[in-house]
């Protein structure tokens, strides 16, 4: 048995890739499939998807590259729904990060395309990089029956806002975007769950969700560099982990030498969730806080969604680490989107 099989017994595994081959290669049915502009662009520009792109350009090229790209994102993930038990997810453009109206407009466009593809509302969700505008948009989209996931989440304030906005899922980034690009930005520690500086915030979020009486966003933790980091998420009690193709392959290659699995999976609804005893002290720390942390975490006492997410935006601007990491995500995903734009426009002009 591999460590991938073991992990599947400990938590719910999602696929952070748009490839049908990756989904079908797993020895079990994954739950959700997540994606972003980097993943969609990479998949769309593969030679085996050129016919799909050509067809979309022929149909929608007159409406511009963005329409083609949005249609492509839906088409690439919609074909994977039969091989999943949960949802497929695509992400709104980071060009709309602080524009509620534009976020809602793109989500409605996605929703219409999913409907055209025969995908019901309960089989997809839309990822919103979680600014104040995104939080306000999520609340309105929920009222329209469009499910959202709060992504690019780095702090408790965003997590509370996701709860208040009615997001169905939330994806904290365990590592910042820079760590995927620059090896010097990676966290190298002996015990990932115990020593990684993001672990306390993950535990604080899980504990917060578990303490609330109303349904909460399902945590689908993301952004791992190594298979060992992925395994650490199960130790922390994360109910879902979305895993890159490379890490899925790495986990499948690792033999399981740890003996029988005795623990059950944590509930996505947080029923019965408790901070694992080994990590209880972590919840009362925050290594990522600027200066000396006062021990106070964000709570429902502040409405982070009201007034177009004003309180959330104010917090993000005040926190250099969070604002920097969100800006890195913005640049990274816009670069991927621009790569697709160039390729699509070249085909439109051809």
Characterize the structure shown.
With 350 residues, the protein is an alpha/beta fold. It has one domain (3-349): TIM Barrel, CATH 3.20.20. The chain is 48% helix and 10% strand. The chain has an 8-stranded parallel β-sheet with strand order 2-1-8-7-6-5-4-3. The mean pLDDT is 97.
Outline the fold blueprint.
Layout: H1 3-10, E1 12-16, H2 20-25, E2 33-34, H3 37-44, H4 50-60, H5 65-78, E3 88-91, H6 100-116, E4 124-129, H7 132-143, E5 148-153, H8 156-165, E6 169-172, H9 178-181, H10 192-195, H11 199-211, E7 218-221, H12 227-236, E8 240-243, H13 245-253, H14 306-318, H15 320-349
Parallel strand pairs: 1-2, 1-8, 3-4, 4-5, 5-6, 6-7, 7-8
Assembly classification = single chain
Read across the widest sheet, the strand sequence of neighbours is 2-1-8-7-6-5-4-3
What's the number of domains? 1
Question: Under CATH, the topology is which?
Answer: TIM Barrel
Look at the structure and name the CATH superfamily. Answer: Aldolase class I
Number of helices: 15
N→C terminal distance? 51 Å
Instruction: Tell how many strands the DSSP assignment holds.
Output: 8
